[in-house]
Structure formats: C-alpha cells, structure tokens
Amino acid sequence: MRKNKKNDVLSDILSSLSKFFVIAVALIVVLICFSGVRFVKSGNVALILRFGRLVGNTYEEQVHEPGLMLAFPYIIDEVIIVPTGSVIEQKIDTHYTSGKMSNLRSNGYVITGDQNIAVISATVKYTVTDPVAYALCVNEIDSVINACVSNAMVESAAGVSVDDILTSGKDRYAKDVTARAQQKLNAAGAGVTIKALELTRVSMPQEVSEVYEKVNAATVDASTQIENARQYRETIIPQAQATAAKAVSDAASAYSKAISEANAELVEFWGLLEEYKLHPSVVKTRVHNEKIAQIIEKIGEVKIVKDGDSRIFIE
Q1: 126 and 88 Cβ atoms separated by less than 8 Å
Q2: Tens-of-pLDDT digits for all 315 residues of the chain?
Q3: CA separation for the pair 200, 94 (Å, rounded)
Q4: Which DSSP state fits 104?
Q5: Rounded (to 5) percent helix, strand, coil in the chain
Q6: Which of 17, 78, 133, 157 has the least CB density, counted as fewest CB within 10 Å?
Q7: How many angstroms separate the CA atoms of 151 and 177, rounded?
Q8: For residues 206 and 99, is the Cβ–Cβ distance under 8 A?
Q9: Which H or E element spans position 178?
Q10: CB–CB of 153/120 below 8 Å?
Q11: Which of 79, 23, 24 is nearest to 48 (CA)?
Q12: Tell me, which fold does domain 88-204 have in CATH?
C-alpha cells in the first residue's frame, strides 16, 4: 500500500511537471514567433540579416523606414537598427598632449609646414548617410573615423605654418581636414558624412609655448608698427603733394604777375623813350615832378623848417 501511494504521488508530480513544461515550451514558441515583430522608432532605419545575409536586392528593400516591421524569429533573422536621423559627435584627441612633450613617442602632435610642433584636438559631428555600408562594411566605426580624421590632421598641417593653425588660418585648416577626412571615409566605405569639424584645443607644446608667445607678441607689434607707418605714409604723402601743388600754383601765379608787370613797365618805358626823343626837357621835368610827388606821398607828414631854426620837433 505504501509503495502504491508513493507511485501515485510521483505520477502526480510528473504529470504536473509535464503540464508546466508544455506550457513553458508553448510560451517560448509564441515568444519566438513574435520576436520578429519590431517597431522602428523615428530617426532610425532597420536592416534584416537572414542567416547572416542582407535581405533585399534594392536599397528600398534592404532599408526599412520607421514604423512597424515584420521579420522572422531571431533564430532566422537578425534586425540591425541604424541611427540615420541623428547627428553623432566624436572627440579626436590623437594629436593632443596637455603636458610636456619630452618623450615624443608617447605624445600626440603634428608637424607644420614650417617645421614647428603643434598639439590639436577636435570634435567631429557626422550623420549616417548609407546605413547598409555603416552597418555591414566597417567594424568599429569610431576607430575608423578617428583614424581618418587624425591622418587628415597630419596631412593638412604639413601644408600650413604654425601661425596659421594657431591664429587666422584655423578655420581654413579645419575645412581642409574635413575635406581630406571625408575622402578617406568614402574610400573606406564607412557610409557616414561629416557635418562639422571643430578644433577644440590648438596650442604649442609646453616647452616652447612661452617662447612662441613672445615671438607672436613681437610679430603682432611689428605688424602694428608697419600698419601705423602705412597709415602715416597714406596721410603725409597726400598732404605733401597738396602743399607742393599749392606752392607750384602760387609760383606760377607770381611768375605770371611779375611777367605781366614787367611787360607793362617795358611798354611804358618804350613809350616814354619815344616821347623823350621828341621833347627831352619836357619829359625830364614831368618825370622828375612825378617821382617827387610819389616820394612825398610816401613820407606822409611834411615839416617845413624856417630860416634860423636849428631844431625840429616832431610830435
């Protein structure tokens, strides 16, 4: 009797376990069947890999836009979500060192066209423009972008001076790095497009920064003095030219006036000479009287001294 009771209890347990197992298996089968139902959020697209191969022959068939998407269970299909609607930001610190550069092998830097050393860090902002290439053609996209941008920094720095990178040519350098990096990413089939590249830190190594600042200050001072000299030249030369032109004009006027007066006196002299030839005594007396009258007019006041006076008082 006891053995029968034990067998009945064991049978009940096995029966219960069998029911739970069937239910669990059924739930697992249901979950597997519905595992292929996905909802792609806005700003993303989805790719389906069936047994490791991309599903679809055209771009429209391969790339599934946001919304409800049906696929086979995950055992058969793998769904890859690609963020195409967002701007992804990545820092590039390969060529930046904040400390001393005594050991160049372990520090990042670039060499400029004038054979100086600069340390540079940047921030790259990019978007996914080819989700198929982004998801399937390149592994570790962050490393690929870092390598392409870092390599472009070195190439672009070789064509500019350190002054350009540190001052007025910084934007031009960033644009050149962007263009070179995009070419490398396209060649690698990364499927991304750089939207912006910002140089976040650009400086000289600590060992030479103080000397560079002095040289830069002297360069700025020299440029300022040259500019002041140029402005002075542009001011003083027109003034000198105006003064010279006025002097020439005044001299020409004085010359014309002197010639005119000389000609008038010459005409008068020749006329007087002809008259003198005809009546010498009359002309001599008249000229004498005219000159005396002119002299008296210039004297102003005349004092007549009477006979016997020895002193003249002028009031």
Answers
A1: yes
A2: 444 555 555 565 656 666 666 666 556 555 555 555 677 788 888 888 888 788 888 877 788 888 777 677 777 777 888 888 889 999 999 988 776 666 556 668 888 998 888 889 999 999 999 998 898 888 889 999 999 999 999 999 999 998 888 888 889 999 999 999 999 999 999 999 999 999 998 888 777 777 777 777 887 788 889 999 988 888 888 888 888 888 988 898 888 888 888 888 888 778 777 777 777 887 778 777 777 777 777 776 656 666 665 665 555
A3: 13
A4: G
A5: 55, 20, 25
A6: 17
A7: 9
A8: yes
A9: helix 170-188
A10: yes
A11: 79
A12: Tetrahydropterin Synthase; Chain A (3.30.479)
For tokens 């920094």, name the residue: 153
DSSP code at position 198? E
Phi, psi of 192 (to 5 degrees): -125, 155
The string over 236-246, giving b where at least 16 C-beta atoms fall within 10 Å of a residue's C-beta and e elsewhere, is eeeeeeeeeee
What is the SS3 assignment for 48?
strand
Phi and psi based region of residue 67 (left: phi greater than 0; alpha: psi -120 to 50; beta: remaining): left
Q: DSSP 3-state assignment of 126?
A: strand
3-state secondary structure (DSSP) of residue 37: strand
- How many other CB atoms are there within 10 angstroms of residue 28's CB atom? 10
Contact 68, 39 (CB under 8 A): yes
What residue segments make up the domains of the chain, in order of their start?
A: 1-32, 35-80, 88-204, 263-299
Range 57-78 burial, b when 16+ CB lie within 10 A, else e:
eeeeebbbeeeebebbeeeebe
Q: How many CA atoms lie within 13 A of 43 on its CB side?
A: 6
Q: Name the residue among 118, 119, 115, 138 with its Cα closest to residue 128.
A: 138
Alpha helices in 98-169 (DSSP H): 131-136, 141-157, 162-166
Q: Provide the CB-side half-sphere exposure for 203 (13 A, CA).
A: 16
Q: What amino acid is encoded at 231 in this protein?
A: Q
The residue assigned the tokens 């005396």 is 292
